Amino acid sequence: MGSQFSVIRNGRLVDGRQFNGARFDILIEKDTIVEVVPPDSQAPENSTVIDAAGTLILPGLINAHTHGDVSLAKGLGDRWSLELLLNASPLTSEDFLLQDKSLAARLAAVEMVLYGCTACYDLFSDFPTPSLESLEAVGKAYTEVGMRVVIAPLMADRTFWQAVPGMIDALPRNLKQKIEKIVTQPGDIAINAMRDAIVNWPYAQDPVYLGLAPTIPYHCDAAFFRSCRELADEFGVRIHSHIAESKLQAIAGQQLFGCSLTEYLDKLGIISSDFTAAHCVWLDTADIQRLADRGACVAHNPTSNLRLGTGVAKTREMLNAGINIGIGTDASTCSDALNMFEAMRMAAYVSRIHQPD
């Protein structure tokens, strides 16, 4: 019978804290790291030896924000704005069959693992509303690849055209009539579907968890957002939303609510320590402090921000305020790859646009 122990030898260990590239051996029992020891230390008899010579060994990376459903549509649009992407990219996956959703998630997971990423926050699109069957297919794909994941399906009860102030009224009559026929399902349908999925979720021990992703504040009615908060509080799941990603979003928020999107969500009681705000490009100092005071996290997506021309987030100011920032690749439609090393490098570069560090 084979040994339950494995030892990784000759690798150079880097964790950004204690280990900075020196050689160490790593002793593993089953699937748990037991000890980090000097090179060539004695290991239990019959241990499986893995020779890691010429490699760096580092902790698994965490992708704070991505969209696995569009992994089949990499680099979809050149010189697109965010708003064009929001309207075009659903066409790539809205007619997916169950096996298509599974394949898209599996490809996303495999790509991330190949780049050293072992966990992610996936805001998966499931049209027209989330279903347990679809989410199980996505969860199974991540489980079989071996990734940890929070799957938070995007949800909204307003279309893009309904959400942006004055958009429908500005259209020619013939186009306006067509657009007015495009509607989303009522928010309570999505809420009930997510309740069913959470109650019957089979993968929580893997660990593959569910979350809630009311997509963009003005795409969701206030009552819908409050229902998301109630559901999150009831079951202890997290909430993730795109906040002030573009200038249009920031301006629309002011026009609709008379305040910033961050202040609006705070008034609704949405922002707390279980809330992740994605992008956060168009925040002022008060918005940043508000997120910090509530213990919220920010998912920083520098590559897609540059690709779509939405701007540069004030990450140094956020860090100084005490906000926990995670780095994300965003979707491969607008960042071209799910490569966390590229995302980290880009985050380091763009942070110096505002100030030297």
TrEMBL record:
The entry's keywords: Hydrolase
Q: Which GO terms describe its molecular function?
A: hydrolase activity, acting on carbon-nitrogen (but not peptide) bonds
Keyword Transcription listed? The answer is: no
Q: Name one Pfam family in it.
A: Amidohydro_1
The Amidohydrolase-related domain is annotated at: 57-352
Query: Under what name is this protein listed?
Result: Amidohydrolase-related domain-containing protein
Gene3D superfamilies in alphabetical order: Metal-dependent hydrolases (3.20.20.140), Urease, subunit C, domain 1 (2.30.40.10)
The answer to keyword Hydrolase applying to this record is: yes
